[in-house]
Amino acid sequence: MTKSPKQLSTSSLAKKLAKTTRQMFAELEALGWIKRDNEKWTLTAKGEFEQGSYRESDKFGRYIVWPESVLSHRALINPEDSYTSAKGLGLKTGRSVATINRLLAELGWIRPWLRGWQVTDSGVAVGGVQKEDSRTAIPYVSWPKRLTEDAVFKRNLKQFDSYITAVTSISGCSALDGHLLRSEAEVKIDNWLYLSGIIHACKRYLPIVEQAQADFYLPDGQLYIEFWGSENDPAYLAEKMRKKSLYQANNLNLLELQESDLDDLDERLPRALRKFGIEC
């Protein structure tokens, strides 16, 4: 009598491959072998092709099992074939690494950690795997290449790209964090600060007797940010010079941004903020 091939549950498969059960489910989902359906894991056509099947249990109900032969499957031994870094996601979507990481952080899938990034439980649920650079020991997260097709990722990426949402001609422009600002340039700066996890206030009065408002205030570094727009208006230029003299006379930390900085915030701001003890 021929003996039936041994079948492994997903948790048993994970144990034999020295992985966590959560990581194993995430990898199988990233490979397209299983999918989440009504809070249950179900096999896809690809999973059935890989000889996945169901088993019934009085204790656990219906669950997925795999033939022992999948232990040597190339995709499971070399999961990097189906995974990529934030840089890879950026190349696939046409965005910078910094943009992708800020988007993932805004989604709550990663958080800043030890000069790098740590995957959250929500990030693990969509397939994120914690990694560490072998040379620098800086932590980072590896993602399923299929993440770019995830509905939540795609929706938020589209929202992220829509930096400017006009509320009304009276209200001005709305940033992602709800701040109402006067110009598209200010919204772009506000969105960058928000998605970088930097606490900030808008239109903050300077702590001096004279009446003057800063465009942005970052309490962590006691830093004020001013965006200087067009100087064609003599009244605007006069106000700019007045405010600059107030910052200097009162020894207030000031970071000045120009139109030319807006297309290079990912390079300009991290370096500038680091001088004031603000990491991002």
UniProtKB/TrEMBL annotation:
Keywords: Kinase, Transferase
Superkingdom in the source lineage: Bacteria
GO MF terms, alphabetically ordered: kinase activity
Protein name: Glycerol kinase
